[in-house]
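Support reply, case 0932

Customer input (verbatim):
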Amino acid sequence: MAKKKGSTTTAVASVQDKPTTLKDLLRPEILEGLKAQSDAMKAEEQARKDAQRAQAEAARKAEEKRLENDFGHLLEKSSPDWRKHK
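Our regenerated output:
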């Protein structure tokens, strides 16, 4: 049996059929102000994350340096096979 081909007409939406968005309702000055505030908040968040990451990195390096000078830690970490270093 042959299949029937459905009609492939596309409905073109006009400007009047689209729902009104908040962007359409706000004045351009207010919209620009909100965008600027959003960008400032994003930059602030990124700077905070960078500072937090740098602080964590500094703490890790300080702990690593402290452990390098700790003889007990070096003994636990080193291999007990002294024949390799003969």
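We compared this against your earlier run and they match. Two observations from our side: The CA atoms of residues 30 and 44 lie 21 Å apart. DSSP finds three helices and no strands in the chain. Please reopen the case if you see a mismatch on your end.
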